Every structure is written in C-alpha cells, then in structure tokens.
Amino acid sequence: MDPECSQLLPALCSVLADPRQPVADDTCLEKLLDWFKTITEAGSSLLLLQENPCLLGLLCHVLKPQDLSPRVLAFSLRLAGMLAAQEDCFQYLQQGELLPRLFGEAGPLGGAAWTAPSVRSGWIQGLRSLAAEPRFLLFLSLSPTPGAVDTIFSLQGDSSLFVASAAGQLLVHILGLSLQGAAEGHPGLQTGDWPVCAQKIVSHIEESLRSAATPQITQALNVLTTTFGHCHDPWTQVLWVRLSPLVACLLEKDPVPAAHSLVDLLLSVARSPVLSSSSCGLWETLAQTLSHLSPTQAGPLALGILKLQECPQALRAQAFAVLLQPLTCVLEATAQAPGLLDSLDGTGGASVTVDTLLPSKAACVGLLCRTLAHLELLQPLPQRPSPWPQAPLLGATVTILRLCSGSATPTSDAGGHLCAFLVGCVRVQRAALDFLGTLSQGTGPRELVTQVFAVLLEYLTSPDSSPTVLKKAFQATFRWLQSSPETPGCSDLDPHTQLFLRELLPVLPKRLCSPCWEVRDSGLEFLTQMIGHWGGQAGFRHALLASEVPELTEQLLRDPESYVRASAVAAMGQLSSQGLRVTPASPEHPGGQQKSLLAELLHILSTDSEGFPRRAVMHVFTQWLRDGHADVAGDTERFVARVLQVASQDLDWEVRAQGLELALVFLEQTLGRPSSHCPYAVTPPVAAPPSPLAQALRPLCRVQLFEFAFRALFDCDRPVAQKSCDLLLFLRAQTASYSGPQGSGSVPEVASVEAALQRWQAGDQGQPLGYLEPEVVVAVLRSMDLEGLRGVLAESSDRVEKSPQSLLQDMLATVGALGEDEADCY
Amino acid sequence: MLDCGLDMTSTLNFLPLPLVQSPRLSNLPGWSLKDGNAFLDKELKECSGHVFVDSVPEFCLPETELIDLSTVDVILISNYHCMMALPYITEHTGFTGTVYATEPTVQIGRLLMEELVNFIERVPKAQSASLWKNKDIQRLLPSPLKDAVEVSTWRRCYTMQEVNSALSKIQLVGYSQKIELFGAVQVTPLSSGYALGSSNWIIQSHYEKVSYVSGSSLLTTHPQPMDQASLKNSDVLVLTGLTQIPTANPDGMVGEFCSNLALTVRNGGNVLVPCYPSGVIYDLLECLYQYIDSAGLSNIPFYFISPVANSSLEFSQIFAEWLCHNKQTKVYLPEPPFPHAELIQTNKLKHYPSLHGDFSSDFRQPCVVFTGHPSLRFGDVVHFMELWGKSSLNTVIFTEPDFSYLEALAPYQPLAMKCIYCPIDTRLNFIQVSKLLKEVQPLHVVCPEQYTQPPPAQSHRMDLMIDCQPPAMSYRRAEVLALPFKRRYEKIEIMPELADSLVPMEIKPGISLATVSAVLHTKDNKHVLQPPPRPTQPTGGKKRKRASDDIPDCKVLKPLLSGSIPVEQFVQALEKVSAFKYPSSSSLFSLEQHGFSDIKVEDTAKGHIVLLQEAETLIQIEEDSTHIICDNDEMLRVRLRDLVLKFLQKF
C-alpha cells in the first residue's frame, strides 16, 4: 500500500466508525473493497492488518451496539470475509473470536441492523469470500455459528432479490465445497455417507421440492440448476439420481409449479456432461416434461433440447414437434395444402387445435412471436433438426404475414379467429419478417419463393406497414434477393428476380417521399445495400436508371432529418461510384450546369449542422479515394487537401477520426504501399521501384497532411489522438530507412516546428505550421516520443481519478475530514 | 330525432355539372333501350358503358314514411355532416320542434350547405328528368339506375332561403350543457373528437341513461378529444358513424397521400384533391405544412377553391375552445391554432371562391388544388377533371370516404390521369370500438346491422365487426326496435317544509322509514310532494264554500306495519293464558285460565296456517299478508288481530 494511502486510512476508518458522520455512498465503499481485494490478492492480508491496525479497529468497533449505518456494517462484513480468506489471517482473526462474533448470532444477525437488506447481503458475501479458506466448513459447523446454514436457507426466500439469489449461490458453493474433499476418489459414495453439512443441504432441497408452496420449489430448483450448471463432478450424478424422482413428481401436479425454473433445471442437467451421458432417466423426464407443460412453457425447453449436442433422436423429434405446434395450428386453421401439414406434424405429436393453443389474442401473439424467435435461433445451428422443414416453415411464415396484413382468406372459423387476432399486429409482423429473412439461407420450391416475394412486395407497398415493419421487410427482401440463384453462365440476375425488381422499384420512390423519416431512411439504406450488391449488373442498372430513384435520392441530401441526409449521402456515394448518378438537364433546373456531387458533399461536410451527414460524407470520400473514383482521381491532392482542411475544423471527433482514415489511405497510396497494413497480410512485391522517399513525401506535405495529423495528435478526444499517433508511427516506420540530407539548414526549422507542437500540446493551437519540407517532417517524427505518447493515450482518461489515494481523499473530503474547507462557510 | 343526414350518393347517377361548357359532356350519346326505343335519350346519356341521368342532381332524403315528422319535438345533431337534410325536414314536413347543435356544427354546416347550393345554383340546368323514375321504366334501365331505391322521393337541392330558415330553428348548445326536454329527459352533448364541434349525446332521465355515439374519433387530430368518461353507466348505447373504411389506417393514408402528391408534382404533374371545405382538409394542410419543405415542394402553389374557402379557413382559427389542447394553448401565445395561417401568409396556400376571377390570373402549374365536390358531380372539381384528365402526369387523390371513387370517376372515362384512393376516415374503427365498449361498459349496445357482421367482400375478417357482450342489438332500415329497458321509477321531490315534518323510524340498521301525507303535484313531468293543505275550520255555513276550499278527506291514518311474525312465538303466545284476557261474558271458552290448547300449525308454500280447531278459526300468515278467518266471533278476531299486531312494528 502506498504510504500516502496508509496515512489516510486511519482517518477514513474513524469516519466510517463514527455513526454521526455521513457515510460515503455505496459506490465509494464498493471501490474501496475492490482496492482491498487487489491488495489481498497481491500480498498478505495479515500484513495488511498488522500494518494498518485501524482496519482491525474498525472491525471490532462495528460489533459494539450502536447506531451504525447498515452500509458500513455490510462493508465491514465483506472486508472481514475477504481478509479471513487467507489462512494466517483467518487464524489471526479467529484468535480474537472476531469472526464468530461478526458472523454468528451475537453479531448483526441477531440485531436490529439485520432488517437492512444491505447488511444481509454483506453477511452472505462475507461468508462467500471466507469460503476460500480451507477451514471454512469447520467454522460453519462449529459453534457459535451452528445456525449459519439455516440462516442461509431462510435467506433464500428473502424479500430482496439480490439477497435471495446470493443465498442460493452460497448454498451451491457450500455444497460443492463440502463434497469436494469427501467425495473425491469415491464416486460411488451414496448421499447417506456424505458429510453432515451436505446432507443437511440435500435434505433441505428435498423438503422444498416436496413443499406445496411454489416459491420454495423455485428456490430448490434454482439451487440445483446452479449446482449442475457449475459443477460436473461425479457426486452431481449421485445427487441427481436421488432428487430426480422428486423432480418428476412435480410434473404430476396440475399446473406444473415453477415451470420456468423446472425447464432451466432440466436443461442444466441435460447440458452437464456427467449427467447426460449416464442412464439416469433424464431423457424420459425431458420427454415427460415436454408433454406436460403448456405450449408457452414448453417452447424454451424444446429449443434447449434441440440445441443440445447429444440427445436421443426421438426426443429431438418430440421437441421439434412442440416447437412447431403453433405454426402447425396456423397452417391447419388456414387449410393449407396437406403436404405442408404432414411434414410439420408428421412426428406423431398430439394434434392441437387453434382454440386450445391460441385461445386469446395476447396468448396467440405471444406464442407466435416466441416460436418464430426460437426457430430463428435454431435455423443457423449445425445441430438443427434434419431434415429441416424449409417449405412448411416458409408456408407458415408467409401465411402468418398474410393473416397480419388481412390479405389471407381463411375458410374455417378457426382461421377467422386467427385473422382477427393477428390483423395489424406489428409484433408478429416483425418477428415473422425476421424469421422469413433467416429462412432465405435455405432453398424452397419456386412456387413458395414466389409467394415470399409476393408477400414482401405486399408489405413494402402497403400504406399500413408501420415504419419498423417496413424496415424489417426491406431487410428480409434484401436477404432473399441476395440468396436468389444467379443464372448459370451469366452474371446477371435471374429472370424472376428481375421481374420482382421491376415491381419493387416503383415502390421505392413512394417510400423515399414518405412523410415519415424512418421510412425514408430505411428506404435509402435498402437502396445503398442493393447498389452495393448489384450495382454492376446490367439488369439492375437498367431498372434503376429507368426509375425516379436516383433523382429522389439526390433530393434527400437536403432532407430536414439528419439521419436521412446521412443515409442519402451514403446512397449517393454508392450511386456515383457505380456510375448510376443521373445528371439531367431538366427544365426544373434552368441553372444549366448542375452542381457536381463532390461539391455538394463538400458543402454538406462544411455546413451541415448535424454530425451524422458529415460522418457519412467522410466515409464516402474515404471510399472514393480508396476506389479511385473518377471525381477524385482527377486531382487527388486538391481533393485530399480540401477534405482534410474541412475535417480538421469539425467539432465532431468521429469526423476528425475519419479524416485520419482518409489521410491513411492517401498516405498508403502515395507511398506505394498496399492498403492493408495488417501484419498477417501477404505483402505483394512492389511492382515499380519506389521513388525517393523525400519525393514521395512531398504530396503529403502539399496536402498539409502532417498539419492535420499533428493537430489530431493533441486532440482533446482520445480516439482521435490515438489514431493519429498510430498513423504517425506507421509513417515513421515507413521513413525509417530514409537517410536524406540532414543538412544543418533545416535544424532551425525543425526546432521551430517542435516549439509550435509544444504550444499545441499546451492547448494553444492557433498558429498553423504552414508548409513543411519532407526532411523537416522526418526529423520531427524522429525526435518525437510517439511510443510514450501512445502509452499515455492507452491509459484511460480517468486514471488519475481512479487511484486509491484519490478515492480515499474524496471520501474524506465528503465529510470534511481533510480540514481544508473549514473557513468556507460564513 | 337523432341526426338528419343527407344521402348524396344518389348524385353519382347524374352527369357532372360543368362550370364551363364541356363539349365532351354535351355530346354524349343518348341512351336507348335494347329494342332501339330512344324515348329516354333526352334524359339518359351513355358514357363509357355507364348510363347517367342528364338533369339537375337529386338527393335521397331521410325516411319520411315511417313517422310523421311534424310530431318530432327535437332533433339532436352530432356533426356538420349529419345535418345536411335539415332544410328538407324543417321546411317541408310541418316540423315545429327545436334542433340542438353546437356552434361550430351550425357554422360549418352552414358553409357546407352554402357551398352545395352555390355549386348547383350557379350552373342552372333547364332540364329536369323524371320519366326514368317511373317504376315500369326504371326496371328496364341498366344498373345501378335499376337498383336505385325510392327514386320517387329524391329531391333537388334546397335554396339558400330554406337553409337560412332551417338554421334559424337551431338552438346552440355547448359541451356538457344539460338541456331539459319537457321535464321528461335531459340531453347533453359531449365532445366526440371527430370534427369541430362534433358531439355525442347523452339522453337521460333520473334512472335511465341512453348514449348516442355517432361519428367519434380517438385519434389526435384538431378537435377536442372524445369525452369517454361521461358515457359510462349507460343502459343503452346507440352506436353509429363508424369509419367507412375500416381497413385503411388514417396515418398510412396520410403518408400515401403525401408521397403520391410529391411524386406527381416532382414529375411536373398537377394534383387534384376533391374534398369538403372543412374537416380533414385542415389536417391535410397541417401535414403538408410539415412535409413540403422536406419533400422540396416549397415552390409548389397550393390552391383551395370553394365559395366558402375563406370562411372555412378563418372559422377554423376562431373556434379555439372546440380545439384540441395543443391548439388551444397556441391561442394564448397568441398564435393561430392551425398552421394554414402561415401557409397563407407565405403565399404557399391561396384560396379563391371560384376558378373565375383572380384564380385564373394567379394559376401556375404544377400545382395542388383542393376543391369540391368529392362526388365529382358539381363544383369546380368538374372543371379540373375535364382539364387535367387527359394527361397521365396529373393525379387525382381521393381522401373523402363518402363516395366510391370508381363510381365518381365513371362519367370521366376514359381517363389518363392517375387516380389514387387514400380515404382518410378518422372515425372509430372496430378495434377502437371494442376498447371503447370495454371502457364504457354499457348494458346494451344498439347499432346498424352492417356493424354486426364482417363486410360482405371480406367475410373472413372477423375483426371487422362489433364484438361485445351481450351481443349488440342490430337494426336495419325502417325497422322499429324496442330499446331493452323499462322506465320503472320516477323521481319525486319533497318540499322542504314537508321534509321537515317527517319523523323517520329506523326499522333496520341503516334503513329508516317515515310515513308521508302529502299532495302529489305533477307538472311538466316533474313530481313534487307538497304539504297537504290545513283543514280549515268550518265557518258556520253562512258563507258559501268555494270550490277551491275543498280539501280531500283526511281520514284517520292507520299505522303502517312492517316485520314478520315468528310463528313459534306466536303459537306460544296463543297458548299463554295471561296473554288473552277475554271478557268472560263474551266467550264460550274460558281462555282466562287455559288459552288455546288445540293449536295446529301447517306449513304452506307461502308461509303458515295456524288452526284453532275448537274456535273454528284460521290464521293465515304469509310473507306480505296475514288473514284471520273467524266467521262468528268478531271479538275473537279483534283480539287475535291485536296479538298479531304485537309482533309487528308500527309507524
């Protein structure tokens, strides 16, 4: 411990021990405990106590009957547990009977302070830390704390959820500890031969499982779930064999109590390598549970079973049937083609009707959303059921979407009810569109794919689609378009997709004109994705150019909503990159010469009041520079100089950081290096011999890249400074071999630049550096301690405030114990 | 009478009335029967396969056969669209009652009527067709003329004089104002949230409450929000005026409207919006106010053409108390509540009474024109349809839900301009109705038959019908329905001096009774108990008694009895000797010593019979009556009666 801290600690302890002093907040005490933890982990706790007797004083002091704050009491209990975790310190504290007094009935346990949840929590956490000490179990079983385990039992039902949960976890830990030694090497040891403490806990769990009260059953199930989840020793198998009949008994009750916890337990058992591999009736219990639970409760269990790596095929089939039940219902109620039904319901599961499975609107919506989300999770997994019923799932999802939009025409009463429940339901629409998007990974019969595109088009066209639904519809559409097959031997889109695009493109202008900005924004995002993917394909280009989309996109650069402007910038960047920007000489623009896009984007970069569009412009410019866009390639230096000049003035740090990215691209291009400086990238041999470095650096100097980078190095936003530091380090590495003229003539210039940079670092960035010669730059780079700077930047900005000394000072300052502010008030 | 709406869909059967001579319309061929008989060719014209009546448009009036409208005492109006038939009722049926409506309803209703009269009167048409209405001839006509109902009752539009006279019979009311109707019921208008001044009505007596919910909206638009709380505890809720387009969500439609408008104008086309001069147009203008800048339409002129355009825009700004909260607060800033004021100030929105005059000099294309009438049969809209119909660059956007847009467009076919249907109907949809009914919980719901089943075209849409418990009672045209409640009680007031004289006796904890002797005075359906007049001293008969001095005979009042007779105790009492002190001379039996010893008690369905066999006497005790049947011995009866009375409370 620092001497400064040691000096401050006694004062703090006396503040904490004084009930009249206002206590620092919980966060401070937590930070203090964290600090003690690092000290005890690094060294001896005993030494800490001996060097700082005030700590022991505090621990003894809290035992005196007084009006101490619950926070301080809880803190002391946790501190005592933490210190006593080391053997010598445990002994030391035991000598003074301090531990039994703190954790036994004589301590807070019996006092009025026990009513505070923080004290109960501190007590549990103290014991939890103490459990690291080998004699903990003995301590627990011996007087004067024989009732500690019973107290933990009772705390399982504590009104504070934190306390209850911590108590459960402590029980699991104690059980594990007590069996760790005893059962090791004796895997066949039966529970009757287990240590007393373990037997006591097991009996308590048994008692709880037999209880009629659901909260108690839940507690027992949670303890078991944590146990089997964390410990895979052989004794867990003995425990499960003993308790599984009781767990199975729960299934006979109607309704099944604590169903969610039961599902968690069974899944935890099934995931345990010790238990799942043994023949302890687990699979039968799981099968039984699947058939006993309500559809809503069984869903998570079915998903969990299907996610298991190893599991009997019959159980998987049953679980999948349970998961698919709601969709089977939908198909049944809407009288789909029997082929679809067979493959969803062919697993022999009891046929369920809409009335029982989807009885009310809330139940129907909830169950369908969950089912769709579960299937979405399952779809990409390697262990998903095989064969995967792609076609029926597509059919069901399309049907659900049609029911939601009101375009389905069910013939049965049940279908009518479903329709009434689902019409206009945004939640189900979103879930179904997400799942439909996921299903694009698989194939389907052409007829169904046509239906998918039809329903997507219906959603994209419908004026009733809410903005969030529309966004999902766009995403799903893009995924389906991505997965549509390419015509063999031709790089263009297949005829069906082309047909769809022809219908889709007239929808897009309307969406781009929507009064709702979210819709305009998602329309633009979709457009950007489409151009990125198919911008080079003739069919798409033709359809796009024939539509009003390019013109409308350009108009949206002036949208009142900044997000839309940003998306429009990205879309225009793509359009322009792909040569899809139209420059009509329309009568509406009698001005004749239309502003170039580059000028328009530069205008946005320098004038837009919001950060998003400006960031988007920087992204587009970087991409343009990287791709050698025609507008840029003409006069790259002028372009880079202009952009860097504007970006350096920007108030948004992300714009400045993106400016550095652009600078890096330019730098790499200028120095003739490959654009990737990833250490694993294979560097192709440089084709042309590099020009002399000084000459190569000259363009960088001309665009004032260094002025920009040096300014960024002292940026008040750390990410910008870090990025600049990396860039300059990269540049210095590139120039390491440079041994150009180091004439004395340049020395004064170097000194003046260094002086200017020092002023910049001090915060005075008024004076520009002006044009710098490459030699000066190289000299300055070499003289700078960039590595040191990088080290400083790598530390978090609050490193000073986070020091323990600062923490102690703060806490003392809160109560005025530092004595500095005494004369302040009058 | 609840509301007084005019069915204007009848006008769809007529040819449009062009403001400027239209060669196309005037050269339409006459229609002839299949056999070539052309006697109707002057009355009926054919256009793109449809047949139209070439005459002044006529309207379908409310049902007049079922009841004699001269016997109607009161008409309650719920909104300005529901009063368009008022002049027909007040001026031509002998109606002498009162009409109740809110001020904005009357003012905007006047504007609508004025516009209607103006549209029709400014294009005088000499010809009036009546031959086709002959039932025998009508049968021969093609649909929809063949199927038009009650064509003989169709009438031409009223005159401005009739409008003024009708409106003079309206009494203005404010929201939550209680209006006594002949002492029988009280009516109260409540905000319905649909339009400026639109109301639902509560009709209640002291013990019954009927709510009339018509044309209500739960959406946040310009009017004051709907008052739902006051509709609670209704015995009957009459529900009508739900949205005509339950599948169209107004928000989505507004979005569709804006997008299509922008797309058309950007391509150099004009947009025509056939609309009423008040109502949704305010909301549309507000949406456009926010939208035009974002869509780059700031330079596009918006024209609002109606004989009442100016009044409508100005009226909307002065009815602050009838507006939603947001708009009301603007008035205190002070700012105009509707942003169309700013659109007018900045010259983005211009309004004209007609396309003649200033408009023709200001007119600039591409532009957006709002004008009437939504039926496309009269008004300035006819001219724009003729003018712009030939170009596919132009678009007509239908926002009013009252007319089928396909039927409205029929006489303009073939049409090149784009047609977009974005009906914006903010009235309650079925989901909102279901929420409303859950909230308000009326005992019974009464509604038109159409609301109790899905629309015929979407029979699977079970969500498009009213779903409530108990099921709604439905009615159809000309059906007489008895509302499911009976008036059981009337409220009677007691005069204070009479109330002072009452001496209540507590007969059960919390329940006290008192006898009242009073005169019941009934006037205008109000009942008042007044103290009875004091009996005047006889004046010796010298003076003549005046008729008014007659007082009702005040007999000695017998006490009122309450309670029940405990049979066991009663029998014990009969057996007790001391309880019966008969005068020894009058009795055959010596009760003084012995009492009754041969008492038999029989249980009956309603109570008990106590049989005194020797005395040949029978005491029948029932829940609400006691009979002592004792033929020969009056004394015994009196004694027994007194014994019975001992067990009862008297007051």
TrEMBL record, chain A:
Coiled coil: none annotated. It comes from Puma concolor (Mountain lion). It comes from the Eukaryota. Keywords: Cytoplasm. GO terms for cellular component: cytoplasm; nucleus. Belongs to the BRAT1 family. It is found in: Cytoplasm. The lineage of its organism: Eukaryota, Metazoa, Chordata, Craniata, Vertebrata. This is BRCA1-associated ATM activator 1 isoform X1. One of its GO terms (biological process) is DNA damage response. The keyword Cytoplasm applies. The keyword Cytoplasm applies. Its main location: cytoplasm.
TrEMBL record, chain B:
The keyword Ligase does not apply. One of its GO terms (cellular component) is INTAC complex. Keywords: Cytoplasm, Nucleus. One of its GO terms (biological process) is negative regulation of transmembrane receptor protein serine/threonine kinase signaling pathway. Residues 524-549 are annotated as: Disordered. Gene3D superfamilies: 3.40.50.10890, Ribonuclease Z/Hydroxyacylglutathione hydrolase-like. InterPro entries: Beta_Casp, Integrator_9su, IntS9-like_C, Metallo-B-lactamas, RibonucZ/Hydroxyglut_hydro. Residues 281-409 form the Beta-Casp domain. It is found in: Cytoplasm; Nucleus. It comes from the Eukaryota. Its main location: cytoplasm. SMART domains: Beta-Casp. Belongs to the metallo-beta-lactamase superfamily. RNA-metabolizing metallo-beta-lactamase-like family. INTS9 subfamily. Component of the Integrator complex, composed of core subunits INTS1, INTS2, INTS3, INTS4, INTS5, INTS6, INTS7, INTS8, INTS9/RC74, INTS10, INTS11/CPSF3L, INTS12, INTS13, INTS14 and INTS15. The core complex associates with protein phosphatase 2A subunits PPP2CA and PPP2R1A, to form the Integrator-PP2A (INTAC) complex. INTS9 is part of the RNA endonuclease subcomplex, composed of INTS4, INTS9, INTS11 and inositol hexakisphosphate (InsP6). Interacts with WDR73; interaction is required for the assembly of the RNA endonuclease subcomplex in the cytoplasm. PANTHER family: INTEGRATOR COMPLEX SUBUNIT 9. Component of the integrator complex, a multiprotein complex that terminates RNA polymerase II (Pol II) transcription in the promoter-proximal region of genes. This is Integrator complex subunit 9. It comes from Puma concolor.
